[in-house]
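Problem statement: downstream parser choked on a complex file, so we are re-checking the raw output for the S-adenosyl-L-homocysteine run. The parser issue turned out to be on our end (a line-ending mismatch), but while we're here, posting the original submission so the record is complete.
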Amino acid sequence: MKKVYIETLGCQMNKSDAERMYGMLEYCGYYQTENPKEADMLIINTCSIRQLSEDKAYSQIGVWGKMKKSKPDLKIVFAGCVAQQGGKNVLKRAPYVDLVLGTQRLYELPNLVKKIEAGEKVVSIEEKPFEESEIKINRVKGVNAWIPIMEGCNNFCTYCIVPYTRGRERSRKPELIIAEVKKALSEGFKEITLLGQNVDSYGKDLGEGQNLAWLLRQINAIEGKFRIRFVTNYPTDITDEVIDTVIELDKVCEYFHIPMQSGDDYILKKMNRRYDYATYKKICDHIRSRIPDVTITSDFIAGFPGETEEQFENTLKAMTELELDYSNTASYSPREKTVAAKWVDLYIDENIKTERLARLNEHNRACCLASNKKYLGREMEVLIENYEGVNKRGISVITGRTRNNKIVHIPCDRDLTGEFVNVKITNARTWYLNGELV
Ligand code: SAH
Ligand code: SF4
Ligand code: F3S
């Protein structure tokens, strides 16, 4: 019996791809191991959203290259977004790699494994998606199952590498998605998160009437108690139909992740985002007015080329004014091929970027705490994800999430993982709530 170890960097899409790779590789006789030292095949699933993530991929692969010296039969696979971008160049930089696997060739993995087992070196990055069929998926154990519904992006924001690494938008067939949802539920998962770079684009390449709202209705109709989430939304693409599903459908949760990137109109234009601050605010206000207790989270970039102090302050102002519940933050990292990377003269000094990122994070913490405080004293439904056993203070704790995606810690000495419980919120912290079972 041979063993495979996958190291995954980057976003949920990569994590989901890893679950698929593990499933497909079982057909080739490779079983999952958590220990890279005992593996016959090592796969790195790379991310290129920022320079740092790309560097991490190459430094990891360097360590594996050394392992191969004492274990010549070891197969090394370089997959994911850096692979798609690098192609043959990956082999120049890391000649010990056996297979460079592009993001759109994922389902071709079993065929390619046969080739590398026969001693070939293979680069497979053709931008034509490889036809997928129903496959075995080895999901990470837990409560939430991530299910991709679309992949790729047509937006070409000027800072972002994703359109170059994940190709154009493509929707997965609804029957495949629904079969995956049913399978995950039969395996005991209690929450389904539909995944895509722009979930609002779902169905644009499918038949009439097949869109995100339609898909949510199909999935909501599946029997059983479970929750449905979806990420990520593009601000101006969110339809009223989708908002209606959140209101009307019992399983669809009150949570939207809507990256804003900047609160300044000039920077938004330079980023090629298709909205200004007032438009984003209108969308947020509209969602909040229709869905009580909705959580809205966002992403922001500090230090985009040319960003002035005043423009940066508009981002801080926006975060507070919109009462965003949480935001992912990052400082701008130039990415090869993207438009903004060419504006070298406008690059912001590293120290200023670091300082702006720190201020962004400080505002984020304040927003999170303010948002959490709104729920003090409230009774909320929590889906338990984890049982921690007895902690240092002699108390055992269970942890879960509310429908609106707030993390709650609850003292409890029973492992209730996978159960829905009602909880009274007793304390609000920056990153989580405390509660008691009722
Ligand atoms: N599709 C989503 C985001 C995908 S990338 C959207 O439209 O917003 C995830 C996040 O990474 C982005 O929201 C952005 O905030 C961040 N990001 C992307 N490129 C970046 C770069 N070059 N430097 C810093 N952050 C970046
Ligand atoms: Fe990147 Fe913009 Fe596409 Fe999001 S919408 S993946 S930020 S190009
Ligand atoms: Fe995800 Fe990173 Fe690729 S964020 S889509 S793995 S560049």
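For whoever reads this later: The chain has a mean pLDDT of 96.
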